[in-house]
Amino acid sequence: MLMRTDPFREFDRLAQQVFGHTQGTWSRPSAMPMDAYRAGDEFVVSFDLPGVDPDAIDLDVERNVLTVKAERRPVDRGENVELQVAERPLGVFSRQLFLGESLDTENIKANYEQGVLTLRIPVAEQAKPRKIAIEGGREQRQINA
């Protein structure tokens, strides 16, 4: 149903092990954590995006590729403020999910609540189990396909 890919994830992991987690201009922010599961006739994907304004989230579907982009912007702390620790990553986060043909990408629903973006993707009608009539013999029977 879902294939997850991020070609730079392994590179980032290795760079962080070698150089430590740096917030330099060349480093990418960490990927947004995700859970995905099937619940009945829909596929549910949840992304942790704490501190992200709902207007800074962008969802796109092109063919079977779902792209989620979110931007965590710096907080205006006012004047005469000296930042002591800055561990929360800022910038643009992006994830791409390759959705299987069995999902209905035309009817994706999105909800953002308490820092969690939840997508509900219905299973396509043609992918749902259905009965098939068998002809022949004395009587017709139905079996699950």
UniProtKB/TrEMBL annotation:
It comes from the Bacteria. Residues 25-137 form the SHSP domain. SUPFAM superfamilies: HSP20-like chaperones. InterPro entries: A-crystallin/Hsp20_dom (IPR002068), HSP20-like_chaperone (IPR008978), Small_HSP (IPR031107). PROSITE patterns: SHSP. CDD domains: ACD_sHsps-like. Belongs to the small heat shock protein (HSP20) family. This is HSP20 family protein.
